[in-house]
Specification:
The chain is globular and about 95 Å long. It folds into three domains: 21-237 and 400-452, 2-Layer Sandwich (BirA Bifunctional Protein, domain 2); 254-381, YbaK/aminoacyl-tRNA synthetase-associated domain (YbaK protein, Alpha-Beta Complex), CATH 3.90.960; 470-568, Rossmann fold. Helix 1 (21-28) crosses helix 11 and helix 2 (44-63) packs across helix 6. It contains 15 helices and 31 strands. It is α+β, with helices and mostly antiparallel strands. Strands 3, 7, 8, 9, 10, 11, 12, 21 and 24 form a nine-stranded mixed β-sheet that branches. Strands 16-14-15-17-20 form a five-stranded mixed β-sheet. A five-stranded mixed β-sheet has the order 28-27-29-30-31, with helices on both faces. Bound molecules: adenosine-5'-triphosphate (ATP) and magnesium ion. The site of adenosine-5'-triphosphate has 15 residues, from strand 8, strand 21, strand 24 and helix 11.
């Protein structure tokens, strides 16, 4: 491609609307342009990077035995009503009526459509297993589209769906996808972790999110510094603490006055204790029903863990009025002793002795309280948020919290959709069974943004070679000089003949601005043909990643460059 002919509108200034690096750089490098909120046009170079990701994904999905198809974006509401998701999905599902007044929606995901196809076409266990995927535009009417391609309303996703005869076979399919995803993100040249994610009511480790590690990630993940353990913050398990037998024996419970002291800090200061000697009682509404949750004073409740323990679809912290209505006690003085509602406790409480709680009476707290003796709870479980001071639940090693960008998500669905939609097959014993399903997504456009978040410097993008729109850019540093121009054309021709994806900067611009643009675009190798060539016949090669420079003759250029590119891809 010739720079003079390609649509590549780079910007010198930082666009004001872009908050994160990838968004800023993609606008500045002329990769994308916004059409309307969360909806972008992909310009030639942006599209080239997107296609690179798609191709890697396609090759690895095919290698794993999945088949590509394409499903419609416009979908009838009736299908979504079968699974109850037409109502449940919320406003992210863009609903509309067509000219015949038929309710329709734009596909944010395709479980319903694929399950409908499979229930019509597949009837026997002999036709299974099956894994079908597509790479396609999705629409989600996100409440806060932001950060450019990171969270758009319209974006490209690879979504795959597996159909199996049994749970055991579905697990095999899941593991295959897990492996394929590892290959995909490794081939993309990205630093990533597969983390256990919350799989809600399904349970088990049958949901993993693939996270590209980058400082601007929206998700916090917990990784072990010593073993492979990695988990979503919401899911990160905490080792159950051994009861500390060295703790003093139980003292008699006392009621003390704590006038106006409602907050943990105020109570602790007043009673001259540390927050780890106090137990907080928080009231949550689990699907509308009040439940008291006990955690140590310096800990926070992990709502997802609570939700899973209670088997609730929704939990939220009750407000002061709801707390008072449920317990008759003003917020700040609640405690588990004699409370009128269900109580569950974080496992840490079981190892505590003689702690402080609210007395269920205004301006009073109880001290020297002990679980088991003074109150009982319905369940004891891991209910709190992990902290960097907790040990790894696998090996006991130190944990670290890091930021990640979710680029992929694999999920064992079981029979949730097949049962709801009566998608069944005849098994080898003649019986009818619902398909056991899995679903597997990759945010293609988000991968490009994440790659840039992970790989850039103050001058611009630093594409990993496998994702770069071009592998090399030739800078003709003096278009008026015939010998230089001839050499640039010759280099361009010979690189193209070798299959090296090359952009020739043939614009009549100053060298300085060509350097700037080449750095901004993040093309891995910059080949400079200018004064050095006139003098000694040498072309300078500069590697974008680390500034590594070498000078080669025009004749040696193609071979050397090809070797350098190959080294970047395999390494
Ligand atoms: P998120 O938690 O980021 O909203 P999600 O859990 O809703 O994502 P999935 O339904 O698992 O996403 O979709 C599969 C993949 O599609 C995600 O891992 C992500 O990479 C990508 N994706 C989801 N929503 C968007 C979006 N609004 N813009 C770009 N990519 C997205
Ligand atoms: Mg997800």
């Amino acid at each position: 491609m010739r720079y003079s002919q390609i649509l590549l509108p780079t910007l010198k200034e930082n666009p004001a609307e872009a908050e994160v690096i990838s968004h800023r750089l993609m606008l500045r490098a002329g990769f994308i342009r916004k059409l309307t909120s969360g909806v972008y046009s992909y310009l030639p170079l942006g599209l080239a990077a997107i296609r690179k990701v798609e191709q890697i994904v396609r090759e690895e999905m095919n290698r794993a035995g999945a088949q590509e198809l394409a499903l419609p974006i416009v979908q009838p509401a009736d299908l979504w009503k079968e699974t109850g998701r037409y109502e449940k999905y919320g406003p992210e599902l863009l609903r509309f009526r067509d000219r015949h007044d038929r309710e329709s929606c734009l596909g944010p995901t395709h479980e319903e459509v694929i399950t409908d196809l499979v229930r019509r076409e597949i009837h026997s266990y002999r036709e299974l297993p099956l894994n079908l995927y597509q790479i396609q535009t999705k629409f989600r009417d996100e409440i806060r589209p932001r950060f450019g391609l990171m969270r758009g309303r319209e974006f490209i996703m690879k979504d795959a769906y597996s159909f199996d005869v049994s749970d055991a076979m579905a697990e095999v399919a899941y593991k295959k996808m897990h492996e394929a995803y590892k290959r995909i993100f490794t081939r993309c040249g990205l630093e990533f972790r597969a983390v256990e994610a919350d799989s809600g009511t399904i349970g088990g480790s049958f949901s993993h999110e693939f996270m590209v590690l980058a400082k601007t990630g929206e998700d916090t993940i917990v990784v072990c510094k010593e073993c492979d353990y990695a988990a979503n913050l919401e899911k990160a398990a905490i080792r159950s603490p051994a009861a500390d037998s060295s703790l003093a024996g139980m003292q008699p419970m006392l009621k003390v006055e704590t006038p106006g002291k409602r907050k943990v800090d105020a109570v602790c200061e007043f009673l001259k204790i540390v927050a780890s000697k106090l137990v907080k009682t928080l009231v949550y509404l689990a699907d509308g029903q009040p439940v008291a949750v006990l955690v140590r004073g310096d800990r926070e409740v992990q709502e997802v863990k609570l939700k899973n323990l209670l088997g609730a679809t929704d939990v939220e912290l009750a407000d002061d009025k709801q707390v008072f209505d449920a317990t008759g006690v003003p917020t700040g003085y609640l405690g588990p002793v004699g409370i009128a509602i269900r109580v569950v406790a974080d496992q840490e409480i079981a190892g505590m002795r003689n702690f402080v709680v609210g007395a269920n009476e205004k301006n009073h707290h109880l001290t020297q309280v002990n679980m088991g003796r003074d109150f009982t709870v319905e369940a004891v479980a891991d209910l709190r948020k992990v902290t960097p001071d907790d040990p790894c639940p696998c090996c006991g090693g130190p944990l670290a919290l890091t930021e990640g960008i979710e680029v992929g998500h694999i999920f064992k669905l079981g029979t949730k959709y097949s049962e709801a939609m009566q998608a069944v097959f005849q098994d080898s014993d003649g019986g009818e069974k619902p398909f056991v399903m899995g679903c597997y997504g990759i945010g293609i456009t988000r991968v490009v943004a994440a790659a840039i978040e992970q790989n850039h410097d103050q001058h611009g993008i630093i594409f990993p070679v496998p994702l770069a729109p071009f592998q090399a850019i030739i800078l003709n540093l003096d278009c008026k000089d015939e010998a230089i121009t001839r050499a640039a054309e010759e280099a361009y021709g010979s690189l193209q003949a070798l299959g090296v994806e090359t952009l020739l900067d043939d614009r009549d611009e100053r060298p300085g601005s060509k350097f700037k643009d080449a750095d901004l675009l993040g093309i891995p190798f910059r080949l400079m043909i200018g004064k050095r060539f006139s003098k000694d016949g040498l072309v300078e090669i500069r590697r974008r990643r680390d500034g590594f420079m070498e000078e080669v003759s025009l004749g040696d250029l193609p071979g050397i460059l090809q070797a350098r590119i190959a080294a970047e891809i395999s390494g």
